Automatic annotation (TrEMBL):
ATPase dynein-related AAA domain location: 14-125
Pfam short name (any one): AAA_5
Leader sequence segment: none
Name under which the protein is recorded: Type II restriction-modification system restriction subunit
């Protein structure tokens, strides 16, 4: 990174990032596991971000990098920081990932406006698929469904997710499904510790957030992707998102959806009433 020294001259100084700091910590604490978390990896160009560090990702049976690299600046920095520790070889010139340093990354299997991660990069990680699951005890709040009915957010998410991938629905991939926390609603508890929905300002606020965030996504990213099937998520009379937004009111929220999807919502509500 460029910096001005005491003589007023421009010079380039090595500025340690998270990876370098993790290596230093791992060498100092060589008897304990160290984890570097790489959140949303697919939102960056991994080949550019990792550079020649990519070569270090192959590990041997002991867990150390199988193919060390030469990195003059990083090597000098590590010598300066670790020369007093027995875990660092003062004659070491090549850089490798120590056996107790673990890289854990998260990524979406397929998302929009992100970089594609090539197979050569992905195969250097152990992949663990995490499915979309709904915990009914978390993020609980209600939304208006009709003039006299409400619907639970978690029930709506389950229903719309099934409809998105179902052969009798939109027949899209699971990447289009909603996460339980795609929208975080608010509830307010009354004196009897029960949820007082319609009488609270949160009820109207939740519905406005739902319109601005959830309906926007469902219309632009889900509905428009279902051109290959005759099934629709919204009523065929909806001609634009502006039209959808205007027609989505607390009293006639039900009417913005297609006949097929309304049947799915009704089936879910009826099953809930029976239970």
């Amino acid at each position: 990174m460029p910096a001005v020294n005491e003589k007023g001259q421009l010079e380039y100084i090595f500025n340690p990032g998270s990876f370098t700091q993790a290596i230093v910590y791992a060498y100092i604490h060589s008897d304990e596991p160290v984890f570097l978390i790489l959140e949303e990896m697919s939102r960056a160009n991994c080949a550019s971000v990792f550079g020649d560090i990519f070569q270090l990702l192959d590990r041997d049976e002991q867990g150390e990098s199988e193919y060390p690299i030469n990195h003059f600046q990083l090597s000098n920095y590590l010598h300066e920081k670790l020369r007093e520790f027995h875990s660092w070889d003062k004659y070491q010139s090549k850089i490798y990932i120590p056996r107790n340093l673990y890289l854990i990354g998260t990524m979406n299997t397929s998302d929009q406006n992100v970089f594609v991660m090539d197979t050569a990069f992905k195969r250097r990680f152990l992949m663990k698929y995490v499915p979309t699951t709904i915990d009914s005890n978390k993020n609980q709040f209600s939304l208006p469904y009709s003039d006299t009915e409400t619907m639970e957010w978690n029930d709506f998410v389950k229903t719309v997710n099934d409809y998105i991938v179902d052969d009798k629905g939109l027949q899209l991939s699971e990447d289009k499904q909603l996460g339980q926390f795609f929208m975080k609603g608010k509830n307010q508890k009354g004196n009897d510790d029960s949820i007082q929905e319609e009488s609270t300002p949160y009820f109207a606020k939740n519905f406005e957030t739902y319109k601005d965030k959830v309906l926007y996504y469902l219309y632009h990213d889900v509905e428009k992707a279902s051109y290959h099937t005759e099934k629709r998520l919204f009523n065929e009379n909806i001609k634009s998102f502006g039209d959808l937004y205007q027609k989505a009111t607390a009293k006639n929220h039900y009417d913005i959806y297609s006949k097929e999807f309304k049947e799915c919502l009704e089936e879910k509500n009826n099953k809930k009433d029976i239970d």
